[in-house]
């Protein structure tokens, strides 16, 4: 048995991995999107992650076989996460800064809470939850306002980027709800492998239909960004996340939902020269406070998603 100090050290390392690697995925997505079309980025990232996780399962002697009913449910959730959400996120980061994108995506836990409240057998929001939701709406308005009214009038690119991110967040929230209600009774890594594999196949079909392979620029920088996203954003981050869910209260694990945007903004500032206006920073602060409020308001909190791959397999 490990010592308590060793266990604490592993927990700290796991938190560091989830905080940093998931926060840094927005920078990796931006770099990959500069060289490859969004569907191809999603396809290659998911494919590489699938190979790594499948090899991990086989090495541990875990069968990848699932029933037909489970297979289509896993496929549906995987496509919502890694086809709709992830591809739209790559597309949006061609229009808005990566740090800005991370803040909009951070609203997913609030969307999940609202969806749950509206469903007949869902989990109701208490007063604190509603206050957090209202604060999040205000923060979102403050965040978007500068890009809707630039010095030359309506910023169509900023508006398009926000709308794309909003749809991406809705897709991930919907996938989260479905994942919880399907109650997958398979190994977490097996579930992830299936979800990623199905999403990868879907993305490759979209990429082929759109002629992405003819326009792709397979540069060293772009390929390394995809490898980083697959290995560190997906596999390492996922492993650390699963470990934390088994050893730490879920409300503490959920803090990544408002730490990741801070990491993403700092990386965007350091490496891409991205800067948010004072008004946007104020909106970001309100959103992060709102997310924290909603998370802490729930007695049975499901893990809130941020990076488009990663909470898939935890049988929320």
Count structural domains.
Answer: 1
Q: What structural class do helix, strand and pairing data support? A: mainly alpha
The oligomerization state is single chain
β-strand amount: under 5%
Helix content: over 70%
Q: How large is the count of helical segments? A: 13
Task: Describe what this molecule looks like in 3D.
This protein is mainly alpha-helical. The chain has one domain (23-314). Helices cover 77% and strands 0% of the residues. It has 13 helices and no strands. Helix 4 runs antiparallel to helix 12. The radius of gyration is 19 Å and the shape is globular. Residues 299-316 have low confidence and may be disordered.
Can you describe this structure in just a few lines?
The chain is an all-alpha fold and 316 residues long. The protein has 13 helices and no strands.
Keywords:
single chain; 316 residues; mainly alpha; 13 helices; 0% strand; disordered C terminus
């Amino acid at each position: 048995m490990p010592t308590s100090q060793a266990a604490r050290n592993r927990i700290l390392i796991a938190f560091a991995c989830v905080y940093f690697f998931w926060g840094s995925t927005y920078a990796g997505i931006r770099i990959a999107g500069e060289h490859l079309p969004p569907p191809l980025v999603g396809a290659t990232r998911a494919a590489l992650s699938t190979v790594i996780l499948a090899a991990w399962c086989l090495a541990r002697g875990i069968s990848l076989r699932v029933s037909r009913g489970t297979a289509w449910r896993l496929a549906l959730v995987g496509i919502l996460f890694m086809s709709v959400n992830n591809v739209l996120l790559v597309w949006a980061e061609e229009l808005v800064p990566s740090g800005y994108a991370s803040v909009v995506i951070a609203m997913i836990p609030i969307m999940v809470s609202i969806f749950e409240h509206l469903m007949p057998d869902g989990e109701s929001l208490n007063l604190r939850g509603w206050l957090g939701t209202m604060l999040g709406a205000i923060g979102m308005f403050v965040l978007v306002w500068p890009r809707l009214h630039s010095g030359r009038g309506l910023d169509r690119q900023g508006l398009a980027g926000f709308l794309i991110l909003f749809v991406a967040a809705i897709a991930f929230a919907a996938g989260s709800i479905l994942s919880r209600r399907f109650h997958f009774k398979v190994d977490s890594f097996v579930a992830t492998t299936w979800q990623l594999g199905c999403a990868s196949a879907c993305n490759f079909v979209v990429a082929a239909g759109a002629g992405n392979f003819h326009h792709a620029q397979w540069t060293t920088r772009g390929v390394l960004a995809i490898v980083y996203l697959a290995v560190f954003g997906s596999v390492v981050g996922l492993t650390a996340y699963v470990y934390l869910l088994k050893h730490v209260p879920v409300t503490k694990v959920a803090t990544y939902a408002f730490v990741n945007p801070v990491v993403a903004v700092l990386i965007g500032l350091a490496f891409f020269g991205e800067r948010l206006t004072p008004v946007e920073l104020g909106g970001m602060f309100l959103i992060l406070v709102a997310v924290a409020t909603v998370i802490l308001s729930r007695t049975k909190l499901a893990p809130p998603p941020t990076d488009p791959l990663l909470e898939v397999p935890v049988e929320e």
